[in-house]
Design goal:
The complex is a heterodimer of chains A (115) and B (110).
Chain A lengths: L3 E3 L3 E4 L5 E7 L5 E8 L3 E8 L6 E2 L6 E7 L2 E6 L8 E8 L10 E2 L3 E5 L1
Parallel strand pairs in A: 2-11
Antiparallel strand pairs in A: 1-3, 3-8, 4-5, 4-9, 5-6, 7-8, 9-10, 9-11
Chain B lengths: L3 E3 L4 E4 L4 E7 L4 E9 L6 E6 L4 E3 L2 E6 L4 E6 L8 E9 L5 E3 L3 E6 L1
Parallel strand pairs in B: 2-11
Antiparallel strand pairs in B: 1-3, 3-8, 4-5, 4-9, 6-7, 7-8, 9-10, 9-11
The chains are: A mainly beta (115), B mainly beta (110).
């Protein structure tokens, strides 16, 4: 059974803290993604990675960075957390290519609250 | 204009009804299209891919109209368990670019 796991379901941090969100997939997928989901705005892509040590900015990368040192692990880093980064963070992975290869498998999400 | 647009709903329909959702996209270079389903407080999961020729999976039918740049999802004989948010997803138009719509909420009423 395919699986994407995220390190925490709920996280509470203070403004200015450095925050690490971890994502691990066991499907040997090349592509990995980080999204945030907010009411009325849907899922917005923060960063994605199509290979180890490779990364591409998504639509809203400001205030975030990522790390992909191993194929199965993709980390999202909030260098200095701010209250407007309070959100649900979803990690996903997929095979490369087009058509059904682009199906994304999502983790359960991390609800981050920044106080 | 948003890259992918959906009517947020909610669509409140009785059990057994037929309901249709549309999703429009702005990038004519888009290549792949999908419908995902997201239950309350859960992660999105793939419902079905959308092919140019249209495709059907049981009570669900998806269609793509490239000329008008929209995709549709038709649900026949709605069940209570169909209540969820349906997300339109468009890929392509850039390296592995993926764009989600904001979702359409469906509530099937007994």
């Amino acid at each position: 059974d395919v699986k994407v796991t995220q390190s925490s379901r709920y996280l509470v941090k203070r403004t200015g803290e450095k925050v690490f969100l971890e994502c691990v997939q066991d499907m040997d997928h090349e592509n990995m993604f980080w999204y945030r989901q907010d009411p009325g705005l849907g899922l917005r892509l923060i960063y994605f990675s199509y290979d180890v040590k490779m990364k591409e900015k998504g639509d809203i990368p400001e205030g975030y960075s990522v790390s992909r040192e191993k194929k199965e692990r993709f980390s999202l880093i909030l260098e200095s957390a701010s209250t407007n980064q309070t959100s649900m963070y979803l990690c996903a992975s997929s095979l490369p290519g087009q058509g059904t290869d682009n199906e994304q498998f999502f983790g359960p999400g991390t609800r981050l609250t920044v106080l | 204009r948003k890259e992918v647009e959906q009517d947020p709903g909610p669509f409140n329909v009785p059990e057994g009804a037929t309901v249709a959702f549309n999703c429009t996209y702005s990038n004519s270079a888009s290549q792949s299209f999908f419908w995902y389903r997201q239950d309350c407080r859960k992660e999105p999961k793939l419902l079905m891919s959308v092919y140019s020729s249209g495709n059907e999976d049981g009570r669900f039918t998806a269609q793509l109209n490239r000329a008008s740049q929209y995709i549709s999802l038709l649900i026949r004989d709605s069940k209570l368990s169909d209540s969820a948010t349906y997300l339109c997803v468009v890929t392509g138009g850039g390296y592995q670019k993926v764009t989600f719509g904001t979702g359409t909420k469906l509530q099937v009423i007994p």
